[in-house]
Design goal:
By secondary structure, the protein is an alpha/beta fold. It is built from ten helices and 20 strands. Strand 11, helix 5 and strand 12 form a beta-alpha-beta unit.
Length: about 375
């Protein structure tokens, strides 16, 4: 197949030839006049659910999961990590096993690049724990990790945990030796604990600036410590509700574009009508203003964000260019999430995961999405 569009980095028109992978890239040296952009397909390392489907349910049907993936394709996402949060050991295993079955059997399953387990080895303290149920928080356990891998045929690729646990450094060493990304999140860890975690192999901060106390010491605190640590990349939820503009601008400047990653942290209500939903055993609701909160309360419980919206939002909120925003949703998560064939972008040999879009009123509108050269979405 052939596709052409405007390169979001160079501004020039490029034409790609591809099957499952990109076979050639032709660049017109003149500045592009057309308005349709072409970019690597978007990658989301943290999706708890989408389009009414909760990935934390062990009983959700395969067709429902397929529908949710097709909805993700319409937002330009081509690869993502379904995310399972803190819960009873058996239910977490059941959810992971169900997702693994979907990956193996659905036509859309290849978009599920791997799985992200967020918790249960997080802070039990109110604030850093976020919306995770307190009764199921527990210390890091390599035996439990091995059960997750057995249930998914080794497809758990990211684990979010807090370094405050005495067992954390040894646990991080154990999982990173197997190629799994250890990410710091939902933590109240001190400087020494964060440094020990990074020395043990942690390379990412999960939705930095969220999953934290409402009030922190001026300094030191665990947000500053992670921002200052150059060995850590950081993911951000850029929906205009989780983070204020000023924090986001400072955080992206501290990390640099190359270590900044967009995630949605989307939950089941994303792309749905306002109303009640579930996140595992947690009752949540989508408000009319787009916020997802614990049912009857005000505490955030994931988001209703879409990746195409996140890219437009970060351009406005963090004052970055389109190319920089696309970098944060494509090559950066591919590198940090260790997604083979996606780390270089629009280059010969990389997977033909592509998205064509236009930018209208600081928002992206997706026209076409391709996964491994197969068109999976076309705007009507």
């Amino acid at each position: 197949m052939k596709c052409k569009g405007r390169d979001p980095w160079s501004g020039r028109t490029i034409e790609l030839e591809f099957e499952e992978a990109i076979s050639s890239v032709h660049t017109n040296q003149a500045e592009a006049s057309e308005s349709v952009y072409i970019a690597p397909g978007f990658i989301d390392l943290q999706v708890n659910g989408f389009a009414g489907v909760d990935y934390n349910s062990a009983t959700v049907g395969m067709e429902n999961i397929g529908e949710s993936i097709r909805a993700l394709h319409s937002t330009g996402v081509t690869r993502f990590f379904p995310t399972v949060i803190t819960g009873p050991p058996g239910e977490m295993l059941g959810a992971l096993r169900n997702l693994a079955k979907a990956k193996e059997t659905l036509a859309e399953g290849s978009s599920m690049e791997g799985f992200h387990v967020e918790g249960p080895h997080i802070s039990s303290e109110e604030g850093p724990r976020g919306a995770h149920p307190a009764r199921w928080v527990r210390p890091p356990d390599l035996n439990e990790y091995r059960r997750w891998q057995e249930a998914t045929n080794g497809k758990v690729r990211v684990v979010t945990l807090s370094p405050e646990w005495p067992e954390a450094a040894r646990y991080i060493e154990g999982i990173t030796k197997e190629g799994v990304v250890a990410s710091i999140g939902h933590t109240k860890a001190g400087r020494g604990q964060i440094q020990d975690a990074v020395s043990a192999g942690a390379t990412l901060s999960t939705h930095l600036g969220n999953g934290a106390h409402a009030t922190l010491p001026r300094h030191p605190n665990y947000i500053w410590e992670q921002l200052a640590e150059d060995r850590l990349a950081a993911s951000f939820i850029v929906d205009g509700m989780h983070l204020p503009d000023s924090f986001l601008r400072v955080a992206v400047r501290a990390k640099g574009i190359e270590r900044s990653i967009l995630v949605t942290d989307a939950v089941a209500p994303a792309m749905c009508a306002a109303g009640p939903y579930r996140l595992g055993e947690v009752e949540i609701e989508l408000r009319e203003d787009g916020r997802v909160v614990l049912r009857g309360g005000e505490r955030m419980a994931g988001s209703s964000l879409r990746m195409d919206r996140a890219i437009g939002n970060v351009m406005r909120m963090a004052e970055v260019s389109l190319g920089e925003a696309v970098e944060m949703a494509t090559r950066n998560p591919a590198r940090v999430g260790r997604i083979a064939g996606r780390m270089r972008g629009l280059e010969t040999g990389d997977r033909a995961d592509l998205v064509r879009f236009v930018v209208e009123d600081e928002r992206l509108r997706v026209l076409e999405t391709f996964v491994s050269g197969r068109r999976v979405y076309c705007a009507g």
